[in-house]
Amino acid sequence: MVLKEFYPPIDPYDSGLLEVGDGNRIHWEVCGNPAGKPAVFLHGGPGGGLLPGFRRFFDPAAYRIVLFDQRNCGASRPNAGDPRVSLEHNTTPHLISDMERLREHLSIDRWLVFGGSWGSTLALAYAQAHPDRVTELVLRGIYLVRPSDHAWAFTPTGAAKLFPAEWQAFRDAIPTAERDDLVAAYGRRIGDPDPAVHLPAARAWMAWEFSANTLLPAEPPALDDDAVLAAARILHHYIGNGGFLPEGGLLAGIDRIRHVPAVIVNGRYDIKTPPDQAWELHRSWPEAEFHMVEDAGHASVEPGTRHLLIDATDRFRP
């Protein structure tokens, strides 16, 4: 089998800042074919922001590709890299509302929704809230934000056993007396207004976040201080609040989207969003096409994962 490659780099033909309420403006861009099939890309994190490579999962001749920076990250304003910016109005329902405002702003009736990692969480939550606006779902690295997923990421009995050196660095950035609840201890530091306190904590938090992205070790992205603090603040905000998901979580709402054509892709050796989450989604939603990539971790750029994601968008072309 010949693995599918990314489509060539492409620039947006339109972009802007959309007022979404509460003093927030989200940055959006559109590329590809203005008359093509609408598709929206949801980035991870939360708080990860857009990268140019995200445009390349879609055939630009067939799709009208919409991308946006979620609230308070990337080029959206205000940016959480400023510790004075409140995250009070940054929740999953707010992000879902932002997507609807953007869809209406761009005069789109229905669109394909593509999301990986946290983007898969938001894609499922959006689709369950607005099933009539979704033509298809393409989901990668499923993150259900259950208590067990929290425990896997932030206690010594989970991912720490596979990344012991990285876990030690994450743990040792916190004084011994506060290590009984690392998430809370990091929250106090990341939320401190003093850069001498919040920046080291944010960098240690994000170093642990990036430690398990790929099956084989890879250099983490280089982020400036504002991007690091924004990502750490938003990620901690969502983790500390259970992803702002409805009671019962995402699996409880599958009946609302059971009719939507969907492709689920997860790496067998995904340490960040272990495949039990994708498997549980598949068990709840057997109508969705399911793929376990045997030689992949978490990242969307790993060859087998990339192939399946692009194959899905190719098959969903008009």
TrEMBL record:
It comes from the Bacteria. It is found in: Cytoplasm. Residues 40-302 form the AB hydrolase-1 domain. Keywords: Aminopeptidase, Cytoplasm, Hydrolase, Protease. Its EC number is 3.4.11.5. SUPFAM superfamilies: alpha/beta-Hydrolases. The keyword Ligase does not apply. It catalyses: Release of N-terminal proline from a peptide. It holds the Pfam family Abhydrolase_1. Transmembrane segments: none annotated. Belongs to the peptidase S33 family. This is Proline iminopeptidase. It comes from Actinoallomurus vinaceus. The gene is pip_2.
